[in-house]
TrEMBL record:
Superkingdom assignment: Bacteria
UniProt-recorded Gene Ontology molecular function terms: DNA binding; DNA-binding transcription factor activity
The keyword DNA-binding is assigned to this record: yes
Alphabetical list of Pfam families matching this protein: HTH_31 (PF13560)
Protein name according to UniProt: Transcriptional regulator
Matching SUPFAM superfamilies: lambda repressor-like DNA-binding domains (SSF47413)
A single GO cellular-component term on record: cytosol
Keyword list, A-Z: DNA-binding
Residue span, HTH cro/C1-type domain: 35-89
Length: 94
C-alpha cells in the first residue's frame, strides 16, 4: 500500500499553501539526499554526524539512503548538527 504525504511546496500571494501529494518512499529518499548533501557540504563524515546526534553510523546511513523513517526528534538533531533550520532538510534541490 502506497502512503502519500502532503507538502506545502509554495505559497501564493495571499499566503495560502499550494499542496502537492508525495509518495512517502520518495519523501524519505529526498530527505536522505538532502541530509547527505548538507553533511558533505559541511565536511562531516557519517560517523562524525552520527556521533553528534547520538545515533549509530549505520542508522544515519539508512536515513541517507531513504530506508529509515527518522523521528522528528532525530530530524531536529540532524538539523542542529548541520547548522540549518529543520525546513532545509525538506527542501528539494532537484
Amino acid at each position: 500500500m502506497a502512503i502519500t504525504v502532503t507538502l506545502c511546496t509554495e505559497t501564493n500571494s495571499r499566503g495560502v499553501c499550494a499542496v502537492e501529494p508525495v509518495n512517502l518512499d520518495t519523501f524519505k529518499v529526498n530527505l536522505g539526499r538532502q541530509i547527505r548533501r548538507l553533511r558533505k557540504e559541511s565536511g562531516m563524515s557519517q560517523e562524525a554526524l552520527a556521533d553528534h546526534c547520538g545515533v549509530f553510523r549505520t542508522y544515519l546511513s539508512r536515513i541517507e539512503r531513504g530506508s529509515a523513517n527518522p523521528s522528528i526528534s532525530i530530524i531536529a538533531l540532524l538539523a542542529l548538527a548541520l547548522g540549518v533550520d529543520v525546513i532545509e532538510l525538506f527542501r528539494s534541490d532537484a
